[in-house]
Amino acid sequence: MIAMILAAGRGERLRPITDTTPKSLVEVRGQSLIERHLASIKSAGGDTVIINLGWLGEKIVERIGGGSNYGLNVVYSPEGEHVLESGGGIHRALPMLGCEPFLVINADVFTDMPMSFEALDSDDVGHLVLVPARANKSQGDFDLQETRVRNGVDPQFTFSGVAVYRPKFFADCAPGRFSIVPMLRVAADAGSLRGTVHTGIWEDVGTTDRLVELNRE
Question: Using CA atoms, how far apart are residues 163 and 23, in angstroms rounded to an integer?
Answer without folding.
Answer: 20
